[in-house]
Amino acid sequence: MTEKIEAAIFELLAGQAPGKSISPEEVARAVDPEGWRRQLSHVRGTAVALARQGRLTITRHGKPADPEEFKGVWRMRLPDDPT
Questions:
Q1: DSSP per position, the chain
Q2: Contacts of 70 (CB under 8 A, 6+ apart)
Q3: % of residues, the chain, pLDDT over 90
Q4: How far is the C-alpha of 18 from the C-alpha of 9, rounded, in Å?
């Protein structure tokens, strides 16, 4: 399931303008439209793993959040370009 969630995250982000984010609900619905709520914890786990690898940024209130300590409403975006 992780591969499917990871693919959905990057597919949805590819359709966004640079710097724009997606919600975990969007990813969960893309993976399982009928049972998307059951997928939310899997989406979170996959997002945390990708953030640890530097492949994804988790945000709260539009600012990067620590993937080890964030709580509440969160979103995902591609990491900022270091150049």
A1: -HHHHHHHHHHHHHTSPTT--B-HHHHHHHH-SSSHHHHHHHHHHHHHHHHHTTS-EEEETTEE--TTT--SS-EEEPPPP--
A2: 58, 60
A3: 90
A4: 14
Q: Which amino acid is at 16?
A: Q
pLDDT value at residue 1: 74
By the 8 A CB rule, do 47 and 24 touch? yes
Residues 24-47 have a mean pLDDT of 97
CATH T-level assignment (fold) for domain 2-77: Arc Repressor Mutant, subunit A (1.10.10)
User: The pTM is what?
Assistant: 0.92
pLDDT confidence tier of residue 82, bands split at 50, 70 and 90: low
Cα(73)–Cα(42) distance, integer angstroms = 16
